[in-house]
Every structure is written in structure tokens, then in C-alpha cells.
Amino acid sequence: MHLVGDPLSLAWIALLVSLMMFSVVLLAVLEMRSVPESRRVVLILLARATSFTVNLSVSKVMALRPNVAYLAVSVALKVVSGAVMTYAIVVQSTEVSQAVYVPLNASAHILVNALTGVVVWEDWKAVGSWLGYCCVFVLLLLGNYLLLGDFELFGTDNSRYGIRGTWENLKRNANRRRESVVHQLGRSIRGGERAAARKLREEEEVAERAAMARGGYEVAQEVVLDKEELSSALPSPLLVDPVPHPAQQAAAAVHARAQDPAAQMSPSPDLATPTSVDIESATDADMEISFGALRDRHEGGIEALGADANAPSFRGQEREWRRKRRRKLRRKLRRKRKSRRRRRRKQKWRQRRRWRQRRRRRKQMRKRERAGGLSCEFSGLGGQLVC
Questions:
Q1: Half-sphere exposure of 283 (CA within 13 A, CB side)
Q2: Transmembrane region positions (predicted)?
Q3: Quick check: pTM over 0.90?
């Protein structure tokens, strides 16, 4: 027990316990996904190595038959270190790469346990050769480091063995890792630029569609205004003009063709050419009326002149077709539901009839048994009476 009571041993154990509590607090407080992977590995290694070493040291203290104070402190540290080690194992299983972490964990355990043995338990007194002692730990660490993979040390591609070749391999591996990090960073940046360009293209497409929609709405408004001007420029049957204007003649011809369906199939000599208006003597309003009449004649003239205002449009026809389709589907669903209800009623009625028949047969069987003393059995599966 005097080894544990030494000031240097107490200071070392206190350092291990403080590092253990510090690391577990950081593991519990920090959002591990936002922390870089190297720092995550260091935190978990610190928690695992310190808790494991404290747990082993406390177990050895409890085996030395300590007094009540040492025993109470040992039990408390045993429980706390076990909880910290379990929590670190849980975090390790989900937050770090196992191929990298497992060799590093073994190396950290070996180093911390060796230092604890030298500082607390005075293993340095039992060491006969420090060179052999250090070489054993170097071999263990080197084996764990080789398990990390992607590391060329004394392989066949290393033409020069020794310190210089090994150092060159170390520098080459460091450069490869740095290049891989830069490549990943550049790929992420390129991905962000592509996403930004894609978003910009989508915004441009939306803006173009909105502009097209606004342009279509403006054109529709212009057409409506032209139709209103044309309808207001039509001659009234109550007012007789002895010398009508050429634009009024064109509008009257279009109105007559719209009223007569048979005349729409034959070409009109009055509006054969758009030069029926005297361009030199006509004003701007006359020109607008004349060209509006020609455009309405080309489109049919029906909607513009109001000859057949009650005729349904394409949207109205589509809406009516959808309404009929929905009615038809509703009727079909009603028929299916009714037929399903009828089938269920028939099934229930047949089942009840079978139950009544079985009850009737059982009653008859009992009456026969009471009357003649005949032993009969009723087979429920086949519905037969066996005597």
C-alpha cells in the first residue's frame, strides 16, 4: 500500500482521473458529428485509455486488502471508470472508423499501462535491460501501426532499406494523405459550385416562365380590347348610313358570316384582300378596326362578335367531361358497394342457415337417443350423423 500512498503515484492517478473526467464530459457535451474525425479519435482514445488504466490499478489496490478509506475510494473509482469506459465504447462504435481506431486504441492502452507500471508500481526496479524493455514496446506499437494499412515501410517497393528510405516513405505517405484531404476538399467545393449553378439555372427558368406568363396575359388583354373596339364599331340596324365606311363594310361582312353558318364554308369576296380600306384616307382608329375585323375573321369571328356567346369553350368542355367522368365513377363505386353488401348478406344468411340446420340435427339426434337408446355421433366437419 505504500506504493499507492507515494506522492508521485497519487499525482499520476489524479492526472489519469482528471483526464478521464475531462474527456467524458467533452464526449457528452459536444456534438460529435460536427467535430473533426481526428479530434474525435483523440477524445475517445483518452477516455478509453485512462478509464481502462484506472480500472486496472483500482482492482490491484482492492486486492491488497486496503483500509476503509482506500476501499471506499477504490470502489467509487471502479464504478466511475467502468461507466466511462462503457460510454466511450458506445460512442466509439458509431462515431469513428474502426479500422483506424482499433490499432490506435491498442497502442494507447500499452503506453498508458507501461507508464502507470513504471510510475505507480515501480516496475523499473524489475527491469533488467531497458533496451529490451523499450524494444518490446516499440515492436508492439509498430505492429499496431502497420495494422492501420495504406502505409509502406519495409515493403518490396522500398528499394533502399534503412533510416533514409523509411523517412522517405514516411514523407511520401504524409504527402499522399495531404493530397487526399485536398482532393476531398476540392471535390466538396466543386459540388457546392455545381449545386449553386443548378440553383441559378432553376431560378432563371422560373423567371422565364413567369415572364412568358405575364406576356401571354398582356397579349390576351390586347386581344380582348381589340374585340371590344370591334364590337363597338359594328353598325347598328337602326342607323342607316347611305355611304358606309370601308372598315364598317368589312365588319358588317364578318358579322354576316358569323351569323350564317353556311356562309362560313364559302370564301367572302368582300374580305378577300386586306386592301379594302383606303390607307391614305383612313385614320389610326379605322386601321385598328379594319385589321381587328380581319383577325377575327381569320379566327372564326364567333367569340369576338358574340354571335354564339353561349357556345362552351375548350376549358368548359373539359370541365364538363371531368364532371361526367366523376359521376360515372361514383355510380360505379355505388354499384360495387351494393353488390359487396349483397354478397355479405347472402354469406351471413347461408351461415345462419347452416347453424340452424346443425342445431336441428343435434336436437333430432338427442331425441332418437332418448327414445330408442341408440348411440349416435354427429360429425361436425362433414355434417353427417353416424349411429
A1: 3
A2: 12-30, 68-90, 102-121, 127-148
A3: no
